[in-house]
């Protein structure tokens, strides 16, 4: 007679397979969760490192911006000091300008030209005088052009008045004193 097994072996194997399936599924879920967690931690560490580097660079940029601002103020102070030194140097040069101008005029005025009035306005010099000849005035203008102290000679007028001697003509001339600061330049430079 055949042997009949009435035990529920199929259900038992099915239950064991199902239990293995769920344990493998749980193991795979845990492994995949662990892999995802490790990958996210790796990328989070990279992001945190980049943020730290960005913060460091931001702090260094702030320090450098402060230094740049300090350099700009130092450059402005340097420019102001150079301007003041230039002003002092020019004032030093123009300290004895009156004596130098009179000495230079004595050198450039040829014989036959007589100065009646000499007037200084800023760095302009206005000369009124008498001349025996226009050639003498032309020679005087040439001497002014070759002068180191005087420049821009401009003959404003030559007139022959009937009151004075017919040999002498009246003239007016203006010229500029080189390297001399006028009062407006001094007040502008000194006010800074």
TrEMBL record:
UniProt keyword terms in alphabetical order: Coiled coil, Membrane, Transmembrane, Transmembrane helix
One matching Pfam family: PilN
Chain coiled-coil ranges: 64-91
InterPro entries referenced in this protein's UniProt entry, alphabetically: Extracell_DNA_Util/SecSys_Comp, PilN
Transmembrane segments: 21-43
PANTHER family: DNA UTILIZATION PROTEIN HOFN (PTHR40278), TYPE IV PILUS INNER MEMBRANE COMPONENT PILN (PTHR40278:SF2)
Protein name from the UniProt record: PilN domain-containing protein
Organism: Thalassotalea fonticola
């Amino acid at each position: 007679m055949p042997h009949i097994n009435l035990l529920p072996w199929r259900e038992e194997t099915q239950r064991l397979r199902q239990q293995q399936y769920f344990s493998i599924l749980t193991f795979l879920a845990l492994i995949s969760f662990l892999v995802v967690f490790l990958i996210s931690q790796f990328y989070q560490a990279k992001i945190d490192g980049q943020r730290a580097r960005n913060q460091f660079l931001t702090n260094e940029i702030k320090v450098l911006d402060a230094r740049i601002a300090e350099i700009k103020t130092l450059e402005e102070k340097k420019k102001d000091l150079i301007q003041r030194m230039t002003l002092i140097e020019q004032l030093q040069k123009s300290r004895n300008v009156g004596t130098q101008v009179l000495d230079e005029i004595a050198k450039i005025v040829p014989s036959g030209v007589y100065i009646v009035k000499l007037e200084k306005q800023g760095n302009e010099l206005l000369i009124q005088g008498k001349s025996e000849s226009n050639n003498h005035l032309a020679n005087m203008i040439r001497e002014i052009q070759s002068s180191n102290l005087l420049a821009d000679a401009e003959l404003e007028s030559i007139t022959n008045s009937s009151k004075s001697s017919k040999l002498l003509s009246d003239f007016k001339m203006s010229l500029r004193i080189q390297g001399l600061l006028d009062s407006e330049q001094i007040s502008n430079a000194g006010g800074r």
